[in-house]
Write a structure and sequence with these properties.
Length: about 110
């Protein structure tokens, strides 16, 4: 079962961006409206056929996010079942990140 990561903890980890691989599993229109810089978009409904696109560098932590944290948790569970280790799901999603860390990120 994937561990959650709080928005403030993600903010702290992003200070060393090469240590975090951000995966957004929302839809393209959601991503276009609001996203975290440097992320990769693979919508949840495409993840099974595109998971091989996730190219983690040695020592990188995979952090999955969505709008509120539900899709990202499902995606993180799937990725763990596919052999990815130490996958984290952003608790509360980009909504919580906007509220707790960066109010410049639009909310919807």
């Amino acid at each position: 079962m994937p561990d959650p990561i709080r928005p403030t903890e993600l903010r702290d980890r992003l200070r060393e961006p090469l240590k975090v691989y951000l995966l957004d599993v929302r839809q393209p229109d959601e991503h276009a409206f609001a996203h975290l810089p440097g992320d990769q978009l693979i919508p949840l409904d495409e993840l099974a056929r595109r998971a091989q696109e996730i190219d983690l560098a040695p020592g990188q932590t995979l952090v999955v996010y969505c709008h509120h944290g539900v899709r990202s948790w499902h995606a993180a569970c799937y990725l763990e079942n596919q052999g990815f280790e130490g996958v984290l799901s952003l608790h509360g999603g980009i909504e919580a990140y906007s509220l707790e860390v960066d109010p410049a990120i639009p909310r919807y």
